[in-house]
Amino acid sequence: MGPRGARIAYAGYNQPYFFFGSRFQNDLQIVPRNRMLDAQYYRWGMEVRDPYVEGTYRRWQGPLLERGTEYVVIVRGPWEEPEGRWVSRRTEDFALAWSGPREEIWRVLNVQPPEPR
Asked: How far apart are CA 23 and CA 48, in angstroms?
């Protein structure tokens, strides 16, 4: 994903660590499915929100595009849905960049390049 790293959304089994990159150069995020962006991370004292409450594709796609997400990693298994279905059925928005036995990496099409870090 390049020396500068990439902005990556992750969905699937809770092992996103492999996709941060060998030098932790990638900006990897689990994007909430329903636009409750404050559900993405917990901060001490805040109300706990569930990022996995299923929303619609458009509610999930909005933050992907707003953040300049370049790739979506799907780890195939019981935790991949609905993101796995959304990505694989929308070839106008995503292109399969790599596929392994359990993982798929999809390139986000028509995304604006991210700002340099």
From this structure: 31
